[in-house]
Amino acid sequence: MKKVQLNPVGWMSQLSQVEVARLQDATNSELFAMFRNCCLAVLNSGVDEDNFEALFAPYENFEIKLIRRERGVKIELVNPPEVAFVDDTLVRGVHEHLFAVLRDLLYMGNKYAFLHQTAPAEGSEITDMVFDMLRHAKALEGNDGVNTVVCWGGHSINQVEYKYTKEVGYQLGLRDMNICTGCGPGAMKGPMKGATIGHAKQRHKSGRYIGISEPSIIAAEPPNAIVNELIIMPDIEKRLETFVRLGHGIVVFPGGVGTAEELLYLLGILMNERNAQQPFPFILTGPAGSEEYFEAIDAFVGATLGAEAQSKYQIIIDDPEEVARTMRLQLEKVKKFRGAMGDAFSFNWSLKVEQDFQQPFIPTHESMAALQLHHDQSKSDLAANLRKAFSGIVAGNVKAEGIAQIKAHGPFELTGNSALMQKVDTLLESFVKQHRMKLPGTAYEPCYVVNNSR
Q1: Are the CB atoms for 356 and 264 separated by under 8 Å?
Q2: Are strands 89-90 and 85-86 parallel, antiparallel or unpaired?
Q3: Burial of 268 (C-beta count, 10 Å sphere; 0-12/13-18/19+)
Q4: pLDDT, tens digit, for every residue of 340-393?
Q5: Pairing, β 72-78 against β 63-69
Q6: Residue range 392-428, pLDDT digits in tens
Q7: How far apart are CA 166 and CA 147, in angstroms?
Q8: What are the E-state strand segments in 147-253?
Q9: How far apart are CA 136 and CA 10, in angstroms?
Q10: Bridge partner residues of 73 (DSSP)
Q11: CA 311 → CA 328, 374, 423, distances in Å?
Q12: Beta carbons of 194 and 168 less than 8 angstroms apart
């Protein structure tokens, strides 16, 4: 039996005795089980696997314990994965990430009762909670340079697309921009990897590679090794709000249904008339050969949300330098707007996010079937409902609870207006055809059925 004790790092090294006692009180809770799984995912950092069962199966005898010390709390690992060690020494980045999980899930999870109804419910309370978690993670420190670029894109992309994400990251890094992604592999890793080279060339020694995850996705997408700041939000909605309030601009690479969910989330927010004056750099980009993907996305947005939604982003194909130059120029507009509004440079308080984009959507067969998928609603509401539909498919593809539901009751059913559902089906089929639903070499069995009966 292998045992390893870890000293606390970062903010967790400065806990009071009362705070340590509260952490220990949580060791037999449902929250602690979630903490254990997230730590196991972190210990598998860099492993190319998007099946939580395959990832966790070899480590049934893995345990994690909290050991109280006068000066704080230690973590003890029992039978941890060998992949996290180099010559019997835990990789330093993994060590840091484990205490980030402790900070976000146990400390902040206790504070906000993540698994209970006492968690924030009002929109302003949710935004305050997002801010508080980022402040505790010290993610707001150094974020006032208006140079944090969020990169969205799929974990299942081909080598040409992956190399392109690295080149874009490199060009952003040369211009002293920091990278924030969903922290996993593929299009989440490439921009960070490229930016490290750009930062090194510019002798930019404080490069930030921020990974934002949430408990049910981190098991399917363990943090990549480049992430130097890991933050785990309690659910997908708060993760998405973190992206748009912490980041100053967004670049979207080719991806699958999860990327479409992110795209619809941001479009729904930007189409709110209260955000009409808000400059928000939003670029879709990929290498030559990815035109089919962006044509499918653009056609879907145009057919469902209209030309106004299409005007919120620009598409740049096979030109990393142009992506970085355009982003740099547009970030200057963001800086001027924040200054004129008196808004913080480190956190976008002035962006209006409606509660429908903040309240957690729990995908079940009942909630998926009940989604309002028709044109007889505002564009923002339609974007919110489409976002939920795609979020449910992500759950059915890679999240433990979603996969369990599909195994027990069959695929989720999406029902709505015939013309709209045909467009949804066409887009999803394009993702399947382009192998964007699961990692290459994995046969994809759809977790959804699209109906046209209403």
Answers
A1: no
A2: antiparallel
A3: buried
A4: 999 999 999 999 999 999 999 999 999 999 999 998 899 999 999 999 999 999
A5: antiparallel
A6: 998 888 887 888 899 999 999 999 888 899 999 999 8
A7: 18
A8: 148-152, 178-181, 209-213, 229-232, 249-252
A9: 10
A10: 68
A11: 19, 22, 20
A12: yes
Q: Which of 191, 203, 138, 155 minimizes the C-alpha distance to 50?
A: 155
**CB contact set of 208 (below 8 Å; sequence gap of 6+):** 142, 148, 178, 179, 180, 228, 229
| pLDDT of 117 strictly over 60 | no
Residue with tokens 């998926």: 368
72: its two tokens = 């704080």
- 89 closest CA partner among 205, 199, 6, 213: 6
pLDDT of residue 300: 95
Q: Could you identify the residue written with the tokens 């973190």?
A: 242
Q: Extract the runs of DSSP E, i.e. beta strands, from 161-266.
A: 178-181, 209-213, 229-232, 249-252
- Look at residue 49 and tell me whether its pLDDT is greater than 70: no
**Assigned CATH for 3-119:** 3.30.1850.10
Fill in the amino acid letter for 324.
A
Q: How many CB atoms lie within 10 A of CB 86?
A: 11
Q: Are 436 and 255 in contact (CB under 8 A)?
A: yes
Please provide the CATH number assigned to the domain covering 143-341: 3.40.50.450
Separation between Cα atoms, residue 100 and residue 93, nearest integer Å: 11
Residue 314 in tokens: 């620009």
Domain boundaries, the chain: 3-119, 143-341, 360-451
Best CA proximity match to 180, nearest among 233, 109, 104, 125 = 233
Q: Are 249 and 150 in contact (CB under 8 A)?
A: yes
